[in-house]
Design a protein that fits this description.
The protein is an alpha+beta fold. It is 26% helix and 28% strand.
Length: 144
């Protein structure tokens, strides 16, 4: 819907492919049309509500964390998988037990579908629990 107020999702196709989903599968999960997903992948716009549904479908909801390692940088293991990519900004919350506080806004490095690292020195003690939530700007959501 070019020309309308909304959001751009420039990295949408890369994230959809990373998830192993077709256009139709993402559209179904986000409750939007296939046409809208195709338009967004080609730089089109959408409403804020549609953008939030697509973001949620791509993992915009908080991802549960199992633990983070006693290491520098520290490596987080998630309980059910994630779609974070290297360079994404996530908000870590509720992590306890680590010698350095990893909670807050952090840039991640993707290791695989169940682990990612952040540049925090937890070489004295790792932690447990918490959540990671991707920043909308990391998936190309930016106000026009």
């Amino acid at each position: 819907m070019p020309g309308t107020t909304g959001c751009r999702m420039d990295t949408l196709q890369a994230r959809r492919v990373l998830a192993g989903w077709t256009v139709s599968e993402l559209a179904r999960r986000a409750t939007v049309s296939d046409w809208l997903v195709e338009q967004l992948e080609n730089g089109g716009n959408c409403s804020g509500a549609e953008a939030q549904r697509v973001l949620d479908a791509l993992g915009g909801s908080p991802v549960a964390l199992a633990s983070n390692t006693q290491a520098n940088p520290t490596v987080f293991t998630v309980t059910a998988g994630h779609l974070f990519q290297t360079g994404d900004t996530v908000t870590l919350a509720g992590v306890t037990g680590a010698n350095a506080d990893p909670n807050g806004s952090r840039v991640v490095t993707r290791i695989n579908g169940t682990t990612f690292s952040v540049s925090i020195d937890c070489s004295t003690a790792g932690g447990t629990g918490g959540t990671a939530t991707i920043d909308g700007a990391s998936v190309g959501l930016a106000r026009l």
